[in-house]
Design a protein that fits this description.
The chain contains one helix and eight strands. It has 121 residues and is an alpha/beta fold. Strands 1, 4, 7 and 8 form a four-stranded mixed β-sheet that branches. Strands 3-2-5-6 form a four-stranded antiparallel β-sheet, with no helix packed on it.
Length: 121
Amino acid sequence: MKRRFLLQLFLESLPLIVAGQETNSGNGSIQGHVTDAQGLPIARALVALDDIMRVNSMETKTDEKGFYLLANVRPGRYSLRVEVAGVGCDIIPRLIVNYGEKIQKDFQFVRHGKVANCKAS
């Protein structure tokens, strides 16, 4: 009788378990715009996200409007780096993503004679 109850309970809860795994609803996202000193969008800038343990990383490039989106980011500690060819780079060395969090991070670049070194510390 107890076995039958446990089996029935398992079978009834199985759709809930599977649905939770398919949605990734606990993951977060990071999005923003990359612009120049005049506020004009910078297309094709590299946006890279690396976790502190160097296990998970993802990258994308900005679109023609300077927009980027890193979706389905697992909760954790990351560094966020943006590189613009011939201009430089910027890095946020410690960025924490929580469950379901949507983070907005915009970057504005000013052209300099020297391209900066872009390493997480």
